């Protein structure tokens, strides 16, 4: 009896494996989450505001990649914690990115450029994050209350108009 399943396994299947930039950026974002002294990867003023306004967990913000068939290059801006050894943070960033990207994709990371754009204390960083979030929450609450009042007023007016129209005009 002939085993037909072995013949199909021996055939070479053609095709190609590729990765979108966003996939590599996500791998990097998740990998960098636990590096001591790295407060945030900075995507610039507008993306930071957008991130805080909508409270996203987009780990790709501020990570730029160039992905080839065999290699990856990475650029990013970071904010580090005051008092931490920035060179050690950079070395750890390189090691973690290289290891995670290679383990998951078998691509070689050939270049990692990190630009330190700010240094903040942990307290400053937390305070700024909370302040923006509180302001946004406060604005959203005020807007919600205003809209709720206007909706109630419009609803009452509409009910009165409907009631007037449904009452018989003649007896």
Could you describe the 3D structure shown?
This protein has a domain at 16-131: 2-Layer Sandwich (Alpha-Beta Plaits), CATH 3.30.70.1350. It has helices spanning 4-10, 21-31, 45-54, 86-105, 122-166, and strands spanning 38-42, 63-67, 71-81, 108-120. The chain contains five helices and four strands, in the order H-H-E-H-E-E-H-E-H. The protein is 54% helix and 20% strand. Helix 2 crosses helix 4 (86-105). By secondary structure, it is of the alpha+beta class. Residues 45-55 have low confidence and may be disordered.
Q: Which characteristics define this entry?
A:
alpha+beta, about 55% helix, Alpha-Beta Plaits, four-stranded mixed sheet, about 20% strand, about 170 residues
Condensed summary:
The chain has 171 residues and is of the alpha+beta class. It is built from 5 helices and 4 strands; from the N terminus they run ααβαββαβα. Strands 1, 2, 3 and 4 form a 4-stranded mixed sheet that branches.
Share of residues in helices: 40-55%
**Mean pLDDT over all positions:** 79
Strand content: 15-25%
Structure summary, number of beta strands: 4
Total helical segments: 5
Q: Do you know the CATH architecture of the domain at 16-131? A: 2-Layer Sandwich
The CATH homologous superfamily of the domain at 16-131 is termed Cation efflux protein, cytoplasmic domain
Structural category: alpha+beta
Low-confidence stretches: 45-55
